[in-house]
């Protein structure tokens, strides 16, 4: 609550915040490569922020990680800035490499608790200034909060979910599709890699984390970033077809069976999927998504009420792979480059985008479970079925590019399903990043209120891996 004393000093404190970098900031989030400070740390090579009225944060990392991330961002910005209003879709603008000055006592408040990323490198509030020359930082605009946290914050409010849905559709049509047309492929779109921030009376959703992104200009080889990835819930199932192991295994199969029948091809796929190398936590997540969306199609154990194992996910995966191999095995050869260029690259980021909507179902499921609700309510089921339509569009587009117009039509049909009866009424404890989001959005709050103690740095989000986020490494 805003006190009278605070209201009286709003203007004065706002002025102090503009020059706050002179005193540095506090850690408000930690990831695998570094920690975020707000207000920004003092940098030896930066005397002022780039854009008046823009709130900046500083990401402190080991030098090699800072340089690598900065170079990635600059490389992609040079291409993405040709897209109209690119700053509404990609968080790549106004980044600067920062040579940090020594951290102050204020910077180090709760440093050990909140900056686990650097603590893992044996850096702590006692020795970090002695090793400051080993570190470098990136000064960047504060990008907002990710989809996971944003939905959590708005409690699935119907009007705000409609606004978010339309903002995401705009990101797809005018950001992701146009990015792919420039031969840039993000490769890791998911709810934790899309940040939501306020813009005037609306919001914008922007992509972050370019660590797995590639510029592909039609070379006759598959980039390593795409070639050896396991099953992931935000990638097409066919990601495993690009691996060297699969291609070698497929070549051996085709030597003895150059023109396989449908039954032989299905047998080969099932045999390949049974190998232990494919098992992962992501595969369990894929199974659970399929289990929720296609529940009526499963056989269940009547005693436990649960699906017997992850074989159901394998059935959907196997059917998806079969469609691809049936089309792209020609004259005893799997035309993997042909498939990669014609289909995979066009569907890669679309799959990641649709995975954001499966998170909405996870949200409803988790909240139902919290209140002991075992089955979706009728109004919830309508939303689940619509997300299922989007997922089915992906599954039906195994051997061809996803029809973006059809996907947009499905997503637009979600709007009337975000009604008041879906809203979660409980009020979770506010996270410090939520307070920073509110501050940036124009609410009356100073930085001392923003940077509250975070006693559980890993509790920023129970789902996302913030280590990889551009503003969260």
Produce the secondary structure layout:
Elements: H1 4-8, H2 10-18, E1 26-30, E2 34-38, E3 56-62, H3 63-80, E4 96-98, H4 111-114, H5 116-119, E5 135-141, E6 145-146, H6 147-154, H7 158-181, E7 184-185, E8 194-199, E9 202-207, E10 214-215, H8 224-227, H9 244-256, H10 262-273, H11 281-293, H12 311-328, E11 329-330, E12 333-334, H13 336-370, H14 378-395, H15 404-412, H16 432-440, H17 447-450
Antiparallel strand pairs: 1-2, 2-3, 3-5, 4-5, 6-8, 7-10, 8-9, 11-12
Helix pairs in contact: 6-13, 7-13, 7-15, 10-12, 11-12, 13-14, 14-15
SSE class: alpha+beta
CA radius of gyration: 24 Å
Shape: globular
**How are the strands of the biggest sheet laid out side by side?**
1-2-3-5-4
What is the CA–CA distance across the termini? 31 Å
Mean pLDDT: 84
């Amino acid at each position: 609550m805003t006190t009278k004393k605070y209201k009286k000093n709003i203007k004065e404190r706002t002025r102090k915040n503009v020059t706050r970098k002179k005193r540095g900031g506090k850690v408000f989030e930690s990831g695998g490569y570094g920690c975020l400070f707000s207000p920004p740390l003092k940098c030896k090579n930066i005397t002022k922020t780039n854009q008046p009225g823009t709130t900046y944060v500083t990401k402190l990392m080991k030098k090699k990680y800072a340089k690598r991330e900065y170079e990635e961002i600059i490389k992609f910005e040079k291409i993405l800035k040709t897209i109209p209003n690119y700053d509404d879709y990609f968080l790549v603008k106004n980044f600067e490499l920062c040579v940090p000055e020594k951290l102050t006592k204020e910077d180090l408040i709760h440093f050990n608790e909140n900056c686990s990323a650097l603590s893992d490198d044996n850096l702590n509030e006692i020795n970090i200034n002695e090793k400051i020359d080993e570190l470098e930082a990136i000064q960047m605009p504060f990008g907002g909060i990710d989809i996971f946290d944003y939905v959590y914050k708005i409690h699935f409010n119907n009007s705000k979910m409609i606004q978010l849905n339309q903002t995401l559709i705009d990101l797809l049509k005018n950001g992701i599709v146009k990015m792919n047309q420039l031969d840039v492929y993000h490769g890791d779109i998911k709810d934790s890699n899309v940040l939501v921030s306020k813009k005037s009376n609306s919001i914008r959703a922007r992509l972050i984390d370019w660590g797995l992104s590639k510029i592909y200009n039609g070379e006759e080889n598959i980039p390593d970033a795409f070639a050896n990835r396991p099953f992931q819930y935000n990638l097409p199932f066919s990601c495993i077809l690009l691996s060297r192991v699969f291609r070698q295994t497929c070549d051996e199969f085709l030597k003895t069976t150059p023109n396989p029948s449908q039954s032989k091809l299905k047998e080969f796929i099932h045999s390949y999927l049974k190998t232990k190398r494919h098992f992962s936590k992501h595969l369990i997540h894929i199974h659970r998504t399929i289990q929720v969306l296609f529940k009526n199609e499963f056989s269940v154990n009547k005693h436990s009420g649960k699906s017997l194992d992850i074989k159901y996910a394998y059935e959907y995966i196997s059917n998806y792979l079969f469609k691809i191999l049936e089309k792209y095995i020609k004259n005893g050869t799997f035309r993997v480059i042909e498939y990669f260029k014609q289909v995979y690259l066009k569907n890669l980021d679309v799959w990641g985008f649709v995975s954001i909507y499966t998170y909405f179902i996870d949200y409803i499921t988790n909240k139902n479970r919290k209140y002991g609700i075992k089955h979706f309510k009728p109004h919830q089921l309508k939303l689940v079925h619509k997300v299922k339509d989007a997922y089915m569009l992906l599954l039906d587009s195994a051997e061809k590019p996803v029809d973006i117009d059809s996907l947009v039509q499905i997503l637009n049909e979600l709007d009337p399903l975000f009604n008041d009866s879906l809203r979660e009424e409980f009020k979770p404890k506010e996270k410090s990043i939520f307070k920073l989001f509110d501050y940036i959005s124009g609410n009356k709050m100073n930085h001392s209120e923003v940077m509250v103690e975070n006693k559980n740095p890993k509790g920023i989000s129970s789902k996302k891996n913030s280590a990889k986020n551009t503003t969260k490494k």
